[in-house]
Amino acid sequence: MFWVVLAVSANLVWAFVSIGDKYIISKKMKDPYVYMVWFAIVGALMSSFILFFIDFSIPGLNTILWLALSSALYFYGGLPYIRALQIEGPTRINIWWNLVPVYSLIAGWLFF
User: Fold this and answer.
1) Alpha carbons 97 and 60: distance in angstroms, whole number
2) Could you say which DSSP state residue 59 is in?
3) Which residues are CB-neighbours of 82 under 8 A, at least 6 positions away?
4) Contact at 8 Å (CB) between 25 and 35?
5) From CA 74, how far away is CA 78, in angstroms rounded?
6) What's the CA gap between 37 and 97, in Å, rounded?
7) Which pLDDT tens digit goes with each residue over 24-73?
């Protein structure tokens, strides 16, 4: 039954992050693109800092290319979310964002 606590706490953390993002986008940074670039830079720096504390080996070129592609898709997928968060409130945006698995299932069924 511990999974219930983890599931609820994950949504709670996401709610706090969304409120923090809304505050940063509306009060501190006016351009959502700058926010996403800073988000990517800080994420890359934190990831490189963590590498000193784990056993790490350099992956192959194929894996690095897939990681770069997924990072670019995550970046460009986050831009509409941050832009919508700048315009509307987090409660309205997160309802639609939580339906992404449903949209993915429908798109996968229709196109693949």
Assistant:
1) 33
2) P
3) 21, 25, 32, 35, 36
4) yes
5) 6
6) 21
7) 888 888 888 888 888 889 888 888 888 788 887 888 999 999 989 998 99
- What lies within 8 Å, CB to CB, of 24 at 6+ separation is 35
- pLDDT score recorded for residue 66: 94
Which residues have a Cβ under 8 Å from the Cβ of 59 and sit 6 or more positions away? 67
Q: What is the dihedral of CA 50, 56, 62, 64, to 10 degrees?
A: 20
**Under 8 Å CB-to-CB from 22, ≥6 apart: which residues?**
85, 89, 90
Question: What backbone torsions phi and psi does residue 30 show, to the nearest 5 degrees?
Answer: -90, -20
* Tens digits of residue pLDDT in 24-33: 888 888 888 8
Residue for token pair 């592609």: 69
The answer on pLDDT for 12 being more than 80 is: yes
Token pair of 107 as six digits:
């798109």
Please identify which residue in the block is written with the tokens 């999974």: 3
